[in-house]
Design brief:
The protein is of the alpha/beta class. It has 30 helices and 33 strands. A ten-stranded mixed beta sheet has the order 14-15-16-13-12-17-18-33-27-26, with helices on both faces. α22 runs antiparallel to α24 and α23 packs across α24.
Length: 783
């Protein structure tokens, strides 16, 4: 094309990135690639392998090894053998390695960016300007955490050997999000990249080798989902970290339940992109392009659900269509391209099938008339309107360049539509009005909210979700906790004084009027309620029957969850008020110390002195968490964005708690009070053998202004209803203070709730962290 023609059409000319270095690397190392285990390059015993293609051209890039059991075993054994040395090495030494890796990533920036584009199909503009710089930033940042480890996290150590499985949408970046914090905290890793995009992980392995990382600290095994399962189910793995589909996340949650393995899951999403009528519309359109067409929409936090205020919907859609028509789609190695290729034909077909379903369900599909390249795996940017909130295309993750649009009238409807999803990963809010923007940002249930911006990521701001988007954070201080465990200390090895532990008599008691009168009821929705089944059980002490409590069942649990779910205002009650209420509880309990002490003594057989001391401790415990209610501050993260990133510690929602037998009043308080202090609604299951310490609290609670439904108490035989509590989709998290944590983990697979096996002697920080998750609100600003 002549310059004159260009000036006339003002069209973009081709601006191809050179693939020279990448080709040289592929030629030198390929066409068959081995795996990196124990610091050596190995090929699988079986000789099994699979092919990796460039989705933009269909060209074969090489043959990748398929790791089987023997290779996974070797990799895990190598990581285990390397663990003592690596975890004992001073933070400064680990920092030096992470720093060296960061430097090498920068040095090989171009190679990595091109390899990633060839293998994945994403535009070179993205790999060059987003993926690889963020990878380097992650290693630098975590070199810092390694350096500061001892002074920042005293009492913590690494979890151990980590099995990490990552997807194909950000191959190198997901690797960095997993490996950098793991190594910083002193863990060793076995990582499997996705089958479609293994090559950049192999370049990374070479970088590890080149900086002299001790053998076995990082092991890269390649393979498909079967290899992933061999890792996540391996007996000698201490922690599993997974990013990928909610479907596979659920399989892993199930497979690891009861195994004692630590787990973090970063899963799917259907993130809302909310535009108010007072938004800067042109910026919002550009934001939306970034939200849903970045990486062809193959992004877990893609803003795939546009919610636009009714008053501007028509104008907004018009502008959007015109912008979509201008998106340049084609060769991802062209620096002027907006959208590259879909990762694989199978994924392209999935997207196509979802669109067909969207049309079948009555949605109106619009695509620009842009020509797609004849060869390769491409999909047009797509907009669905006229959809209902319950349509499949509105509810399910498409993982492609497909946007659905719904309208809303006011902010309440916007919030309700935004939260009408089983996911909770991210969201974006566009409004020039600070009240609207912040109120809506705080009301969306998600781990990251971007105000007047989207897809902001930084190593110092944790990323992750809630609900079926998984749990755990990656990045920043909050992400470091996912790779640490509390080290046992002397005080932690000492058991709390055991003053209970006997079983209650579990036979249904005779149903005479007298026994009904003497029975402590359930406490549900702020009212004392008879157990649904009408059964009661005796509570016995050394001198015989001390009283009776209701014997709860699934129906009582359902009622309690309903009451707790209806009490979510507690989460937004200000911290000062919450702390005042906890102080009232302490005060009211103290006034009845003698009565409580007598009851504890009768139930547990402890001396009067011990019982009095337990009540005094419980009072002090309520004071302690009342004090914390307004002191567990969030943070303002320092990131690369110009603006503020507010990290808020938000309550988890509804939490189920099983309380220990030992020191029943103190145990109950230590579990329930921090959760209440942080704004959660609680369903507490008191000690099975000593439940009266909790049921006697009803009157204390009633006189302490605790809103109805915030604390619910269900007594009875744990095995009869705790599984129902753990399985209930309305329960967001479980704290297991007594009973079998494995059973609770297995029962709670369906909605992937966070389960904590309570360590009664954990620090306040840990109790508070387990009571909350971090929401990062990104607020760019500037004139
Ligand atoms: P998967 O969740 O299947 O894959 C993620 C990773 O897990 C890959 O490394 C995969 O291996 C591995 N894997 C697959 N099965 C198992 C298993 N049983 N145990 C352990 N590891 C396993 O995602 P896909 O790549 O198949 O994509 C499917 C859909 O998932 C997409 O259409 C999209 O909707 C969603 N997705 C969501 C992501 C997110 O970040 N939210 C990321 C990627 C996908 P391999 O790929 O080699 O088979």
């Amino acid at each position: 094309m002549a310059v004159k023609d260009i000036l006339e059409s003002l069209d973009w000319g081709p601006a191809p990135e050179s693939d020279k270095f990448a080709r040289e690397w592929l030629d030198q190392h390929g066409p068959s690639f081995g795996m990196y285990i124990d610091g050596k390059w190995v090929t699988p015993e079986s000789g099994d392998n699979f092919e990796s293609f460039n989705p933009a051209t269909g060209e074969l890039l090489g043959t990748i090894s398929q790791a089987g059991e023997s290779e996974v075993n070797s990799a895990v054994a190598a990581a285990r053998a390397a663990l003592p040395g690596w975890s004992a090495s001073p933070g400064h030494v680990r920092a030096r390695y992470l720093y060296a890796i960061a430097r090498q990533v920068q040095k090989h920036h171009r190679l990595l960016a091109v390899i990633e584009t060839l293998d994945n199909g994403k535009p070179i503009r993205e790999t060059r300007d987003a993926d690889v710089p963020l990878v380097a930033r992650h290693f630098y940042h975590h070199a810092g955490w390694a350096q500061l480890f001892d002074e920042t996290f005293p009492g913590y150590g690494p979890v151990g050997v980590c099995g990490q499985v990552i997807p194909w949408n950000f191959p190198l970046l997901m690797l960095a999000w997993k490996i950098a914090p793991a190594l910083a905290a002193g863990n060793t890793v076995v990582l499997k990249p996705a089958e479609f995009t293994s090559i950049s992980a192999l370049v990374f392995a070479e970088i590890c080798n080149s900086v002299g990382l001790p053998p076995g600290v990082v092991n890269i095994v390649t393979g498909d989902g079967k290899t992933g399962a061999l890792i996540t189910e391996h007996d000698d793995i201490d922690k599993v970290a997974f990013t990928g589909s909610t479907e596979v996340g659920r399989i892993i949650r199930k497979a690891t339940a009861g195994s004692g393995k630590a787990l973090t899951l970063e899963l799917g999403g259907k993130s809302p992109f909310i535009v108010f009528e007072d938004a800067d519309i042109d910026s919002a359109i550009e934001g939306l392009v970034n939200a849903i067409w970045f990486n062809q929409g193959q992004v877990c936090c893609a803003g795939s659900r546009l919610l636009v205020q009714e008053s501007i919907a028509e104008r907004f859609h018009e502008k959007l269509r015109s912008r979509m028509a201008k998106l340049r789609i084609g060769d991802p190695m062209n620096k002027a391209i907006d959208m590259g290729a879909i990762v694989d034909e199978s994924q392209r077909k999935t997207i196509d099938d979802m669109c067909k379903l969207g049309c079948d369900e009555g949605g109106e599909m619009w695509q620009p008339s842009t020509e797609l390249p004849e060869q390769g795996c491409f999909f047009l940017p797509t907009l669905f309107t006229n959809v209902s909130p319950s349509s499949t295309i509105v509810q399910e993750e498409v993982f492609g360049p497909v946007l659905v649009s719904l309208t809303f009238r006011n902010h309440k409807e916007a919030i309700s539509l935004a939260n009408n999803t089983r996911y909770g990963l991210a969201g974006s809010v566009w409004s020039q009005d600070i009240d609207t923007a912040l109120e809506v940002a705080r009301s969306i249930r998600a781990g990251a909210i971007w105000v007047n911006c989207t897809n902001q990521f930084d190593a110092n701001a944790g990323f992750g979700g809630c609900r079926e988007s998984g749990f755990g954070r990656e990045g920043g201080r909050e992400g470091m906790y996912a790779y640490m465990r509390t080290l046992p200390s002397e005080s932690q090895t000492e058991k709390m004084e055991n003053s209970g532990g006997r079983k209650a008599t579990t036979e249904p008691s005779s149903s005479g009027a007298e026994s009904v009168d003497r029975t402590a009821k359930m406490y549900i929705g702020g009212k004392q309620k008879r157990p649904d089944g009408g059964y009661t059980m005796d509570v016995t002490g050394p001198s015989g029957t001390v009283g009776q409590v209701g014997r709860g069942n699934r129906k009582d649990i359902r009622d309690a969850v309903e009451a707790a779910s209806g009490a979510t205002k507690w989460a937004t009650t200000n911290a000062h008020t919450r702390s005042q209420i906890l102080y009232y509880i302490a005060e009211n309990l103290e006034q009845r110390s003698a009565e409580f002490a007598a009851r504890i003594s009768a139930m547990t057989g402890s001396t009067t002195e011990a019982a009095e001391s337990e009540v005094a401790d419980a009072v002090s415990e309520w004071f302690r968490w009342a004090a914390w209610a307004d002191k567990y501050d969030g943070a303002v993260h320092e990131t690369t964005m110009h603006g503020l990133v507010l990290a808020l510690n938000e309550p988890l929602g509804v939490v189920g708690v099983t309380c220990p037998d030992e020191r029943p009043l103190c145990g109950f308080t230590r579990l329930v009070a921090p959760l209440l202090a942080m704004g959660n609604s609680v369903i507490a299951v008191p000690s099975e053998s000593n439940p009266l310490a909790a049921t006697d609290l009803y009157q204390v609670l009633e006189t302490s202004d605790l809103p109805a439904g915030v604390l619910n108490i269900v007594t009875g035989i744990h095995s009869e209803f705790v599984p129902a509590l753990a399985a209930h989709d309305g329960v967001d998290s479980m704290w297991v203070g007594t009973g079998d944590v494995d059973e609770v983990q297995i029962a709670s697979v369906s909605n992937m709730k966070r389960v904590w096996k309570v360590n009664m002697d954990a620090s306040a920080d840990e109790f508070l962290r387990q009571s909350t998750h971090v929401k990062n609100i990104w607020l760019p600003h500037g004139l």
